[in-house]
Design brief:
precorrin-2 dehydrogenase, binds ligand SHN, elongated, 212 residues, two-stranded antiparallel sheet, alpha/beta, EC 1.3.1.76, Double Stranded RNA Binding Domain, Sirohaem_synthase_N, 5-stranded parallel β-sheet, Rossmann fold, 3 domains, single chain, NAD, binds 1,4-dihydronicotinamide adenine dinucleotide
């Protein structure tokens, strides 16, 4: 299957998770960094999900699934351990609502990649359902390689790129300056939190280009 990978903005959209077990917890944790309005429909939830409910991060409807639970939902996760319940969710989902079934049966509008977040830097991994175990393993490798230091590095790149785009008019100088931002030296300095050096480097790029 050739899935089409995209980054969805689901801020304030309604997301319904049907089921409250370990898989629901996994999907919920992937959704939490967004500002989606998350609702869990399940007669039981894990202790970890209960903590998120207590913190007001998710709404829990303590009940068996009914079709009306999907009203206005943009994304739907059918993640119960009962195939017939997941089938009922699929039946009730409108064609414009995007449905994900954790049992990978029936209608599959989307599947979930493993995600590593480092600020604006987002890595997602998928085997298109071939081997979720391998996906998880590769995620762990990426987590180790792209560690927390990348959060500040990406933030620095974002600001420096903006400055270059706003201050350098000539399109070739701009292109060269943007390419210079990827100098491995900058990455090293950023990881060592040597921001003075990073900023001086950017200023040199900007003023150097102005003189052309
Ligand atoms: C199709 C898909 C649909 C979907 O859920 O979107 C799907 C389906 C199924 N997973 C199953 C099993 C496992 N899933 C995991 C883990 C993850 N599974 C995730 C996604 C996906 N799983 C989608 C494909 C993505 C891809 O291929 O890349 C991850 C990446 C993201 C997430 O869950 O959101 C998350 C890692 C999250 C993280 O670490 O961050 C592990 C490993 C573990 O938990 O340690 C195992 C056991 C090992 C194994 O089976 O390989 C089963 C059999 C269930 C059974 O036995 O009955 C099915 C159903 C079937 O295959 O029929
Ligand atoms: N995609 C993935 O990553 C994985 C998918 N799976 C699949 O996901 C399914 C669920 O796995 P777990 O979360 O581990 O199971 P679980 O047994 O921990 O949780 C099942 C949940 O479904 C809820 N449920 C049952 N009937 C319901 C109903 N009528 N309405 C609403 N909720 C209902 C239960 O209350 C429970 O919270 C598995 O059966 C398997 O098919 C399993 C492992 C990984």
């Amino acid at each position: 299957m050739n899935f089409f990978p995209i980054m969805l903005d689901i801020e304030y959209k309604k997301v319904v998770i049907v089921g409250g077990g370990h898989v629901a917890r996994q999907k919920l944790q992937a959704l939490l960094p967004t500002k989606a309005q998350i609702i869990i429909v399940s007669p039981s939830i894990t202790d970890e999900i209960a903590i998120y409910v207590g913190q007001g991060k998710v709404t829990w409807k303590n009940k068996q699934f009914e079709a009306s639970d999907l009203d206005d939902a943009s994304l739907i996760f059918a993640v119960t351990d009962q195939e017939e319940v997941n089938d009922a969710v699929e039946q009730a989902a409108q064609h414009w609502q995007l449905l994900s079934r954790a049992d990978a049966k029936g209608r599959v509008d989307f599947i979930n990649p493993a995600v590593v977040r480092r600020g604006d830097f987002v890595l997602s991994v998928s085997t298109s359902g071939a081997s979720p175990g391998l996906t998880r393993k590769i995620k762990a490798e990426l987590e180790a390689h792209y560690d927390e230091t990348y959060i500040d590095y990406i933030e620095f790149l974002k600001k420096a790129r903006r400055e270059i785009i706003q201050t350098i008019q000539d399109k070739y100088s701009k292109r060269d300056a943007l390419a210079s931002l990827l100098d491995p030296q900058l990455e090293e300095w950023a990881k060592e939190q040597k921001w003075d050096k990073c900023n001086a480097y950017v200023q040199k790029l900007v003023t150097g280009a102005r003189q052309i």
